[in-house]
Amino acid sequence: xxxxxxxxxxxxxGSLSAQVTIVNNASFRADQPVSAGSWAAAFxxxxxxxxxxxxxFPLSKTLAGVRVTVDGVDAALYDVRSSQITxxxxxxxxxxxxxVQITTSTGTLxxxxxxxxSAPGIFTKDTATPPKGAIRNQDGFTENTSSxxxxxxxxxxxxxxxxxxxxxxxxDGVAPGATPLAFTRSTPQVFxxxxxxxxxxxxxxxxxxxxxxINAVVPSASFITGRVAVRVFVDGVDSNEVALFVQ
Length: 247
Description:
About 0% of the residues lie in helices and about 40% in strands. The protein has no helices and 20 strands. The strands form four sheets. The protein has a six-stranded antiparallel sheet, with no helix packed on it. It folds into two domains: about 5-115, Immunoglobulin-like; about 120-245, no CATH class. It is an all-beta fold. Mean pLDDT is about 90; it is low at about 1-20.
């Protein structure tokens, strides 16, 4: 599974000096911060950076001469470019307003990002209202689209970031693996077209650092058909709304 598939529309979370913005790499909302372990990005004008993407996992904490720290802890970096730096909020980060430093070959920018316990965001695949979610059908391979919809009663996989505490420790920038799986301590509530549905799994995808996977059952109600809304709640915090296609 390519992580790059899920880097799409973004969630505003805080700002740095020199017109740099920190966002969560899932949804576009101006009212929600990040959580430890979630994907984030810094947007701004970064001079002297050669566009570079991490070639493999585990991710390095320096990339093309760039370093990002959150509350003094080095963050794992996915890619760097002149306008965007994509990184993981370190798992050691505790809730609160935390300092961030971005160091490049031309200097250091300092600022703050707001961190909470859980900050769920679902990755999106288009700019519709609501946008199509990063969701796979029951076979685990087919992307959920209007031409490849799910059926009522199927189990779909919803991909996001920011689920909060896990049942075991995971290294920053490391694909967590499956022995054992890293489950979320809190079971999310998933609503499909307003109907709360059964969650069969909530934890980190074993193959990609920081990628939250929720396996949920599509409710059997007859009115759940076509392009329907999906929203997730964790510890009372709601995600962005995305669309799921149901036959």
